[in-house]
Write a structure and sequence with these properties.
The protein contains 5 helices and 10 strands, in the order ββαββαββαβαββαβ. A 5-stranded mixed β-sheet has the order 1-2-8-9-10, with helices on one face.
């Protein structure tokens, strides 16, 4: 569950680049987990099966017996479940895994993946009692998203004079976020260079290094 940060100096100031193969687990930072809790058309089962149509979600409820929580506040059914998913996502299911976010308040993990019955079966088996998994369809895997983010962030100053590239981040839902100072100028340039399919261009404010 690593979240790797690269910081690069640019003419306009400090630039944040968020890349890597880790799991995205801070619901407070992503702000997306609760939005997805009440999606319509969700099927709930003990072992979910892949949805046939894009945008559909499946839900499975944990049945794995939960050991007694340890002394650490992080030793919880939800965190232990995430740890198992992490190992599945970086192991035999790496080709279909896309991303993950956590809604700790509702003991829920949202997992995006290229539809795979084998992956769904294994992650549902990894969920402890009291944990709910929401399985969302995606059309690309994390490795391809990381590679795309790396390509975009190879030279953070390449478009200086046209717009300022400030942030590149892999979003757990299956695309790369490109943060700039002027989205209207940046969008056609970025999409021409890298395609439209898995890129979202947005405005982000300038980041400043903490002098303290």
């Amino acid at each position: 569950m690593n979240r790797n940060l690269k910081w690069a100096g640019a003419a306009a100031g400090t630039v944040a680049v968020i890349v890597g193969a880790g799991l995205w687990i801070d619901a407070g930072e992503t702000g997306r987990a609760e939005i997805l809790l009440e999606d319509p058309g969700v099927r709930t089962s003990a072992t979910a099966t892949p949805s046939a149509s894009a945008g559909r979600s499946d839900t499975c409820l944990g049945r794995r017996p939960a050991p007694k929580d340890g002394d650490s506040p992080d030793d919880t059914p939800l965190n232990r479940t995430i740890g198992r998913i992490d190992r599945l996502a970086t192991g035999r299911h790496a080709a279909v895994y896309t991303g993950l976010s956590v809604d700790a308040a509702h003991h829920t993990a949202h997992v995006w993946r290229i539809p795979s019955a084998a992956f769904d079966t294994d992650v549902c088996a990894a969920a402890e009692k009291g944990v709910r998994l929401r399985l969302h369809d995606a059309d690309t895997g994390r490795a391809d998203l990381d590679a795309l983010a790396d390509r975009i962030s190879e030279d953070m100053t390449r478009w200086d004079g046209t717009f300022v590239l400030r942030e590149v981040a892999v979003d757990e839902r299956g695309y790369v976020l490109v943060g700039v100072d002027d989205p209207d100028k940046a969008r056609p340039v970025v999409e021409k260079a890298f395609g439209k399919g898995h890129i979202r261009v947005r405005h982000v404010p300038q980041a400043y290094a903490d002098a303290g």
